[in-house]
Amino acid sequence: MPVLARWIEAAGIPTVVVTMMPDLATRLFTPRTVGVEFPFGHPFGLPHDAAMQNRVLNEALHILAGADRFGTRVDIDLEWPIPRKDAYKAWQPPEPSPIVKWWMERDTLPKA
Amino acid sequence: MIVDSYRFLPRSFRPIYENAKPDGTDPVWAPFEKRLSDSRIALLTSSGMFLEDSHEPFDLDRERAEPTWGDPSFRAIPAPMETVGLAHLHISHDDILADPNIALPIDRLAEAAAGGVIGGVAPQHISVMGFQGASLEGWRELTAPAVIELLHRDEVDGLILAPV
Asked: Which of A29, B68, B113, B140 has a CA 20 to 30 Å removed from the CA of A64?
């Protein structure tokens, strides 16, 4: 996804990436980045929480329009309101994805 | 507060992201020259979102058969949205189907336009399926050029991309 932002930016359209992994985005040289400490699948926050979604969207709009240099990153100071253990389980798919199964079958899942 | 990018990631997956290599390192930059209140804004999600009434889903059968492959195509999502489906094998679908705005905040963007914060909402937004496996060539050769052409045609002034 950071690569799409770079290609689209290079074609003359300003971009901002809203992401749960701002470290990855900046390592891949996104022009503008907004970081959120939310579980995967939730870049704009909780379902039916318009205030939270607006907070993230407005930050993204302001960085998009107002950042003055390449590599600008701003992280949003919002804590996910669900306990980490529950949120960690809840974002994951009902069964491991094909690539994770493939890694597990070959015991090639990268070690931490 | 500085976000912990790995807070919700299984620990064994962390090296994949820590060792990710950039496709390019040059400081690509398109200045945002208009007033935000005069600008037309579009959204892009990597959630594999599609419209159940008018789109083919992303190809998950091939991904199941070839786990290192991910469907590189895209879908254009008009605003307002009809009934959406998700084709993505790497996240739970429950919350996005309950409220698609958490991945593609079309309703919030329309409110920003109604309130004069932005000039307008693009007539269509973009959906891709973010897992691209071993290759970015499908995105590079087909999807990115088509998306760029669509955004130019729709006179989009800025794009918000949100990976899931």
From this structure: B140
The tally of domains found in chain B comes to 1
Give the length of chain B: 164
Locate tokens 């939270």: which residue? A52
Provide the ipTM. Answer: 0.97
Domain count, chain A: 1
CB contact under 8 A, B102 and A19: no
The answer to whether the Cβ–Cβ distance between B163 and A42 falls below 8 Å is: no
Residues of A in contact with B67 (CB under 8 A): 97-99, 101-102
Tell whether A91 is covered by a domain. no
Inside any domain, residue B96: yes
Query: What integer best gives the mean pLDDT of chain B?
Result: 96
φ and ψ at residue B120, rounded to 5 degrees: -175, 165
pLDDT score at A112: 41
Of B142 and B12, the one with more pLDDT: B142
pTM for this prediction: 0.97
- Domain of residue A6 covers 2-82
How many Å apart are CA A20 and CA B164, to the nearest integer?
Answer: 8
pLDDT at residue B30 greater than cutoff 90 = yes
Helix (H) / strand (E) containing B111: helix B106-114
Q: What number is the average pLDDT over the span B110-121?
A: 98
Residues of A in contact with B32 (CB under 8 A): 14, 64-67
Of A5, A22, A99, the CB nearest to B3: A22
